[in-house]
What we know:
Shape: globular
Order of helices and strands: HHHHHHHHHHH
Amino acid sequence: MSPELSIPFPVTFALMVVTLVYLWGWYRLRKALPNLISGWRLIAFISGVVSVWAAIGSPLATLDHQMLTAHMAQHLLLMTVAAPLILLGAPAITLLHGLPQNLVHDALRPLARSRAVCGLGDIITHPVFCWLVSISVVIGWHIPALFEQGMHSAGWHEVEHASFLAAGLLFWWPVIQPWPSLAEWPQWRIPLYLFLATLPCDALSAFLTFCNRVVYHHYLSTHQVVFTSALADQECAGALMWVCVTFAYLIPAVVLTIRMLSQEKRTSQLGRCTL
């Protein structure tokens, strides 16, 4: 697969269509129920879509065959930036209001209410399933054989990008719990969920940073744009993953923990006042 990639116009066009549908749905919701969906959700969703485009449609996509650091930045944009931002935008309810209502009422709503779809939804949004899928995608695509397959096949490269975005959406679903999600676990388990997710990612990034050998032979034969060697590029990619995943996962864990402790404190104070 050649590193001189052109901007994927089909992907860019698809993202533009999704954004326009979301904008129309957001406008209709705001007009009908002004307090239901705020402006910051619109900003979050559009930022998430832009992050997807930055990962797979911008000039960054033309560098991932030359630099492992650029390739790693794509993964991080899709999983730790685009996915949570899209979910924060309450995409389900907003996109449903942006689609033709005949389609929603006649096809999508009955399908969503069917027993099979509801059962499947309960499975794929369960925190254990979300955790296992996201970690499997991260570790699996960094196995050298699969990694090289993605580098040498345009089709597999697209599958890789799609799987990282889908895994990111699944991973952040139990944390953000967008509509129509219901909490599957007690709130205190989510910080643990996030913390445990950092461990395999930290192990992988540490291996890439300190193994002192080039793991992916593809980068031995490509021109290094910035770095003096493929090994230096790999060390930077590992360090980038280490730092970004740690902050992206642990900061929400800390915020949620502080929120839970504050709620417990208020409840305790209210109980004392009642007594």
